[in-house]
Amino acid sequence: YRQENPKPSGPKPAAGAAPPKPSGPKPPRDLPAGPVQYRQENPKKPDSKSWHRYENYKLAKTAAEFFERGGTAPDLKYDYARGFVTGPPSLRNWCEGKGK
Predict the structure, then answer these.
(1) Which residues contact 25 (CB under 8 A, 6 or more apart)?
(2) CA distance linking residue 69 with residue 39, whole number of Å
(3) What are phi and psi of 73, to 5 degrees?
(4) Using CA atoms, how far apart are residues 63 and 47, in angstroms rounded to an integer?
């Protein structure tokens, strides 16, 4: 006898409620503090994995929030190098190789 997967328990989200933010990897310890600003028009290949990640993290206001929203260190470095994100000078230093 094989039992089917039970339905998830718990409260359902309210109609029209924003979806929860994805929980990404913990940000690196040496990540710079300060505000970041992402280009809101998604420059990634439509429907690719990176496009979907960008849709989640483009609303981030800090580098730490970028990671909370599912961004990765390679995403941040790639996006910085191409001008998709701006931030304080410490972000430049981190993205240009001094960060892990």
Answers:
(1) 67, 72
(2) 16
(3) -60, -45
(4) 24
